[in-house]
Design brief:
Length: 819
């Protein structure tokens, strides 16, 4: 690496083989880094091992940094990059949003930084390369994506820069994405090793917040970092200012759970006498929408954040959330999928809740790590039910099976069991009531901790988890869980943990020494992911409640009986639940079908409050916002729909380079299973759409959506080829054509209403209706008819369940309930 801040420095021991690099050593470098650190960024004290990392980077060593979220990893590569007198550091970042965020922040500090992504125009690209090759370039950082960096074009364009010795360093941010053992594997990261082959003298820095020893080794190997010039820093994983708690449930009734989340947030607000910033993570978009609506109904400033929301709205939500949490406006709580993750940097987040269990322990650790970045206490609550575990195990098993099938088809080695192991570790964490939660998390990442030593335990926790703070209460609460027997869990095999009898957590069996600078510890390394040992179900490892740890995900778990036994109401059914509430509302109003429908009210997840003024219920005092209660408007009459031909509304394009919370349900118009684009003649029928208190959505749009949905349903259910098969699936093979037409019209009406209740604007309505329509068009696919499985078909499954409900209504109540 070049640095003209000092000249004539000798090479360090680590760099014997490199003639290309001319690293700077000694006080001069230290001084320059310190100047950048204080003058450019305005910091006064180093966090963790920042200083040592700067020094190692300036010596030209390869550096691996493993440090918890919020430690300040970005500065670790930004300071040395800016301190270099010439040359550029290339930063690989997995997300466009993350990249934009960092570039914007650096520009605020007057740092000369550029980015090159799929959004960069060709001319701009050429100009950037020309600038970087020039002797006078002042650009110190170039941000790019792994996909872009690995293109032959990009690599070629770096060659002249390298030859002119102006390529200082490659930085790989979120480096756990490189490892198949990591929780966020990105295949394109795997190719980054090519960089070292092409530019052997350029040093590499990799950074991550969550990497087990196994993942750390994989990162080093994949990037071809040289062991003899590797500086590895593993910061302690413990976040002692986070209070970890698990709330145990027997069922996942959404309304009850939302109420508990509200109570929990409200209690925090009451204690602080003002609102606080927080995040509630949910697995599905539907849950995010429903929960934020519920919380808004209770007077909180809540917004959903997921990939189904328009990007301009996401930006607005993020901005308002960054400003909120102090009682002076803005958004206080974001109900988000994992899309709200990397790059979120707000210091005063006071609570992180998990509505349902995440898919991995690394994910849980990273998400909770968004709390308390200012060092003040923050609360992390995981809502845990074994019914939900069954769901998530199923999802993880399915994607594992998919990977296995892909591996088989290309004769590749079998995929790792990492995802399954990681989920099991999280379940074990949640099921534990004996070992401190801080200790459990840190052990997962390889720290060896003697939890029996009161002193050691205190340094990790000091009553900052439910188990240490109120052990008896935690054990009592756990009795709320459904017994394993009704949930088809198989008991785990006997195997004791190696770190003590108090273990109820899988412990890695092989030890390896990790260079740890600062506190110093020996870490454990897993021989393989499946080397994790499950705990025994004997008396020694039976927890309270006479339970033992659930075992590796079983693909044979059947959900339907569980749902029947435990009243399971999963997140995917939230909208169906909304429909149920709507029906209850409308059932209360008597009269003809027409007057019945005209009196239907908009579904409100705050419905259980029964319209009681929020202040009385919550005890909120100003400055809390209370919901705006409008008088019921006059019923909206929507003109009858006839068989006019209307166009489908096209779905929005997904944004490239951005992380998705769930696969985008793009409608494949070319697919043989997709309906053709020729319009379908609909039989004339007098149909009135459900009305609601809100008149924000234009009647024309609603009519258009209804007609398009109805037409799509006709194409699927009333075409000559598949008609009988489709009705067989609905157990209505003997129904008449007339009944079928009525059922489809009612289903279209229900589907339109479920889109309508979730939207506050025409724009939102258009987006949602497009998604819903695309899902309807995919009902010909078998996956849509399975009771559970693939996230990708979640919307389709919801639609099927709506249609089934309509069919059920037809069978029990006759046609009078329809239309
Ligand atoms: N030495 C320091 N003193 C004070 N604040 C710092 C210091 N270093 C970094 N920060 C601040 O800490 C916050 C977190 O930094 P950064 O985003 O780099 O963390 P991170 O470790 O990369 O977290 P994540 O893994 O979540 O991305 C930022 O607001 C940054 O400005």
């Amino acid at each position: 690496m070049q640095n003209a801040l000092a000249s004539g420095s000798s090479l360090g021991d680590h760099l014997q083989e490199s003639e290309h690099t001319t690293p700077m050593l000694g006080a001069a470098n230290e001084t320059v880094c310190h100047e950048v650190f204080t003058n450019v960024f305005g910091y006064t004290e180093y966090k963790g091992m920042q200083k040592e990392i700067f020094e190692a980077a300036m010596r030209g060593e390869d550096v691996l940094v493993v440090a918890p979220t919020g430690m300040g990893k970005s500065v670790c590569f930004q300071v040395p990059a800016i301190a270099a007198e010439s040359g550029v550091t290339i930063v690989v970042s997995p997300l466009l949003a993350l990249m934009k965020n960092q570039v914007a922040k650096l520009r605020q500090h007057d740092v000369c930084v550029v980015s090159m992504t799929s959004e960069t125009l060709k001319q701009e690209r050429l100009e950037i390369i020309e600038d970087l090759s020039s002797d006078y370039s002042t650009t110190r950082l170039l941000y790019t994506t792994p996909e872009k960096l690995c293109t032959p074009d990009f690599m070629r364009s770096l060659t002249p820069i390298y030859q002119r010795k102006r390529l200082n360093r490659l930085v790989v941010d979120e480096a756990h994405c490189i490892s198949e053992w990591g929780h966020d594997f990105r295949s394109e990261y795997r190719r980054l090793g090519e960089f070292r082959l092409k530019f052997p003298d350029v040093s590499i820095m990799a950074l991550t917040a969550s990497a087990t020893p196994l993942v750390q080794d994989d990162i080093v190997r994949s990037l071809k970092m040289l062991p003899n010039r590797l500086y590895k820093v593993v910061h302690p994983f413990n976040r002692s200012n986070l209070f970890y708690e698990v709330r145990y449930h027997a069922t996942t009734d959404p309304i009850l759970q939302m109420e508990e989340i509200f109570t929990c947030i409200n209690a925090l607000h009451q204690r602080r006498n003002r609102p606080s910033s927080g995040i509630v993570y949910c697995r599905t978009r539907a849950t995010c929408d429903a929960l934020s609506q519920y919380l808004r109904g209770k007077g909180l400033s809540a917004r959903p954040y997921h990939k189904g929301v328009k990007s301009s709205l996401l930006d607005k939500t993020l901005k308002e959330w960054q400003e909120g949490g102090n009682g002076e406006g803005g958004v206080d709580v974001v109900c988000a999928t994992v899309a709200f993750g990397m790059g979120i940097d707000k210091s005063d987040v006071r609570y992180i809740m998990h509505y349902d269990i995440p898919k991995s322990i690394e994910g849980y650790y990273q998400e909770t790590g968004r709390g308390g970045r200012d060092g003040c206490p923050a609360k992390c609550v995981l809502f845990y039910s074994r019914e939900d575990v069954v769901q998530v195990k199923k999802l993880v098993s399915l994607s594992q099976n998919r990977r296995q099938i892909t591996a088989n088809s290309v004769n590749a080695p079998p995929p790792s069991q990492r995802a399954v192991d990681s989920l099991n570790a999280l379940i074990a964490y949640a099921e534990s009531t004996d070992v401190c939660r801080h200790v459990l998390l840190c052990r997962y990442f390889g720290e060896v901790i003697d939890a029996k030593s009161a002193e050691v335990a205190k340094t990790y926790c000091d009553k900052m988890c439910d188990i240490c703070k109120y052990p008896e209460k935690t054990k009592r609460r756990k009795l709320n869980l459904s017994p394993y027997e009704i949930l088809s869990f198989r008991p785990a095999q006997a195997q004791k943990g190696s770190a003590g009898d108090d273990e109820d957590y899988p412990v890695p069996q092989v030890r390896a020494t990790t260079a740890f600078h600062g506190v110093g510890y020996t870490s454990n390394a897993r021989p393989s992911a499946s080397g994790w040992k499950a705990n025994s179900c004997n008396s020694a490892t039976r927890g309270d409640n006479n339970t033992c740890l659930p075992q590796v995900a079983s693909t044979s778990t059947v959900l339907a009986p569980i749902a029947a036994k435990s009243n399971y109401v999963g997140p995917a059914l939230l909208r169906s639940r909304a429909q149920g509430l709507k029906r209850t509302n409308s059932a209360a109003s008597s009269g003809s079908a027409e007057s019945d429908s005209s009196k239907r009210a908009k579904v409100d997840y705050s419905a259980p409050s029964g319209g009681v003024p929020q202040k009385r219920q919550t005890g909120f005092r100003p400055p809390f916002k209370t919901p705006f209660l409008k008088p019921q408007p006059a019923p909206l009459h929507i003109p009858a729909i006839t068989s006019s031909v209307l166009q489908y509304i096209p779905a929005d394009e997904p944004q490239s380079g951005e992380e998705d919370d769930q696969p985008v349900n793009g409608c494949d118009e070319n697919s043989s299973e997709a309906p053709s684009s020729s319009p379908v003649e609909l039989p004339d029928r007098e149909i009135h759409l459900d009305v609601a208190t809100s008149q924000k959505i234009s009647t024309t749009l609603r009519n258009d959506n209804f007609t398009s949905t109805r037409r799509a349903l006709h194409k699927i259910f009333l075409n000559e080829v598949d008609e009988e098969d489709m009705w067989e699936r609905l157990n209505l093979s003997s129904s008449s054509k007339d009944t079928r037409i009525s059922i489809l019209a009612t289903a279209a009406k229900e589907l339109e209403f479920s889109v309508f209740v979730m939207c506050a604007s025409d724009e939102g309505y258009k987006r949602r209706s497009a998604t819903s329509l695309n899902a309807v068009k995919r009902l010909g696919k078998a996956q849509a008819w399975r009771t559970s499985g693939d996230d990708e078909f979640e919307d389709e499954r919801e639609i099927v369940s709506t249609i089934r409900r309509v069919c059920q209504g037809t069978k029990t109540d006759g046609k009078s309930r329809m239309l």
